[in-house]
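Structure ticket #2291
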Amino acid sequence: MTKQIPFKLVVEKAEHYKADMARFLRDMIAIPSESCDEKRVVYRIKEEMEKVGFDKVEIDPMGNILGYIGHGPHLIAMDAHIDTVGVGNIKNWSFDPYQGMETEELIGGRGASDQEGGMASMVYAGKIIKDLGLEDQYTLLVTGTVQEEDCDGLCWQYIIEQSGIRPEFVVSTEPTDCQIYRGQRGRMEIRIDVQGVSCHGSAPERGDNAIFKMGPILNELQQLNMRLGNDDFLGKGTLTVSEIFFTSPSRCAVADSCAVSIDRRLTWGESWEGALEEIRALDSVKAAKATVSMYQYDRPSWTGLVYPTECYFPTWKVEEDHITVKTLSKAYQGLFQKDPVVDKWTFSTNGVSIMGRHGIPVIGFGPGKEPEAHAPNEKTWKDHLVTCAALYASIPLTYLSELKK
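Resolution: structure written out below.
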């Protein structure tokens, strides 16, 4: 028989650990941890997991940290990527992004919302489970994953494909403003290359200017964006040109190559093959004899491991009546005596690999807000840390109850 959750005690415990979560989050923020440079923050997380009483803590060959609570047959995972983007123009910050800002309500710094706050709440959810004896016929796996900002989902490709770990479902703790998120658009990184012939800039007619050849392609890409597919829940597919490159012998010469990068967001029903083919079918692409390809990612992790993949990150969603949505909704209602908001992410998460590639259900609930991600003066809310820790501690037993219905 599944244990009953003492919801009031769970909330009280989460509130009791608010200061500990705030301190732990600020410690993580103070350690710069851009993609492929996460070693120091990984070891700081390991220290905290061991301190609060996780049953097993290990670092895998890629550098992901895996903390376990319990030994039951139902494996449930909760994930936070613990790498961050850079700080951008420091002049746009009103406080030091690595020393951070703290008020009675807020914690500021790079990674506060995206998404080391999720890690702080998960670790102390483990502490609450231990304090209240909420272990049962489940094993909880808490992951701090690497390289997500560089290549979302690569960490979980490795965990699933190489470590052979397949949870029954995964809770993503990416920022959701303490709402339940059940899907996201996919994405892919596309490159278009155009070749030309250089010559002296004083007589451009002697050459073939690759930048000019790219011009009509850019116009058609802008038009293509307007007619991409749409999904009632996830929204419209989009594309934008994010980078442009060229080669030329000098500023006094005709450019002999030009390339652009495209950030393509895929809605439900769109495929990577289709996204490439619709660009290849453009008249301007054919006229320029352009090459359209998908980027590859092969950057070494902080451990030196290389796990190459194509830059395709599949669309995913779970249905409104899925057991993961029911589980989080029931736990939320039990804790807070109100119904949660159910929505979706605008940006991309590790769910692209967990569910998009491997079909393992993903459900989202995290501290912080999406607009804080990658922005100057990034912040999160201390009350969010409390709310999320309480919910995370309640999810496993609620799931076991839902399984029996």
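Closing remark: The first strand starts at residue 56 and ends at 59.
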